[in-house]
Fold:
Amino acid sequence: MAGRVAAVELIGRKRDGDELTADEIRALIAAYLADEVDDAQVASLLMAGVIRGFTTAEAVAFTEALIDSGDVIDLSDLVGPTVDKHSTGGVGDGTSLVVGPILAAAGCQVAKLSGRGLGHTGGTLDKLESIPGFRVDLAPEELRDQVASLGLAIAAATAELVPADKRLYALRDVTGTVASPALIASSIMSKKLAGGASHVLLDVKVGDGAFLPDAEEARHLAELCVSIGRSKGRRTGALVTDMSQPLADGIGNALEVGVAIEVLQGERHDRYSELCAELASAALQLTGVDQAEARTRVDELLRSGAALERFRDLVRAQGGDPAVADDPWGVLPRAPVIVDWSPGEGTIRSIACRRIGELAGRLGAGRQRQGDTIDPAVGLELLARVGDQVTAEQPVVRIHARSEDDAAMAREVLGGLFERTSQPVLPVPLVHARIGLDDPAGPQGDAALSAG
Ligand code: URA
Structure:
């Protein structure tokens, strides 16, 4: 890229609705990393693309340019299918904590590179760090060796893996340019492809607590991710799943780990455990197992305790206290103030999912600014869902707070987050769409013409 002048030209072309070439996108990203174009120029170009739409070819080009900015992990000599699973982000959405151990118990090799909480959503690394001693910073060789011996590792991506995404994401976060299917797909898929797995399952969230709340946009994002993965020769599929209300009963780091362990112990049968089983089955389907057979195997791995055993191995291998697998609430940190709250009698019509996630963040479960420290113990337990009829005395939220003041703040905020009705309300479906699972190898590069 010829520095500033070319960047200005590209911004103008994107503003006018032109498609940029792969070479232009690659040069732009390289110039950005070399500080030859500045944040304002890249943000302008991204905003023009958010408004005008990016094509599928542009999304693929962004993905390739991001991957080329750093290292890639080679898992090709591991025995067994290498599998990765990724959620686009939600509230009470700790499915990786359950799906990873199930897949490892099923004979897959799971090298999962996870992220931290973002905005109103939680992150797997923050959740796992609530287990005393648990380490998420594994060197690439350590990660590979652990996967080779246990079939499972969950760690932070190193600074060398897709560095351009880290920089671009931080810029998008503060310039209103996150909500673009093409930019989200390239951000996610660049990390999945660089992570080296040959099978990739996406859990694309839809509803108020998702980054793309609109159903059509979420479906489009899922199709785009599948198309990008396949164009790079990976078996890729997606489920589009509900995020119009929090998924698990626990929202907050230790609370989410505790609830995940209860699913692995076979003690919970709810929307969260059901989605974990559906995701694990879909991932097995990508490896060639028939859908019904996959679900039978997953249920058996949970029932027999084999998946719980893998979770215990994972915790031990990464320095955490393995007793957490038997006695989660005895090992995980607990908040000093725990109080119940109820919206009053009626049937729950809606729950403001995103604001529930934000409230857990304000209690200390998330970061208000980059670099903030997480409080692992605090958060919310959600004891009822949309469609449930509750009495005036029935606790619907259990607040886990660091202080009485925080608990009072939470009680006040919660008052505006639940809608009740005297009419019956239909439960919300959990899985909205299944994409690319019946034909996991699929035709290459088959996405719609416009990626948005
Ligand atoms: N998660 C990512 O990794 N990137 C995005 O752009 C959005 C969610």
Observations:
- The first helix runs from residue 3 to 15.
- The pocket of uracil is lined by residues 88-89, 169, 178, 183-184, 187-188, 211 (CB under 6 Å).
- The domain at 4-53 is CATH 1.20.970.10 (Transferase, Pyrimidine Nucleoside Phosphorylase; Chain A, domain 3).
- The chain has three domains: 4-53, 83-160+168-327+431-435, 333-421.
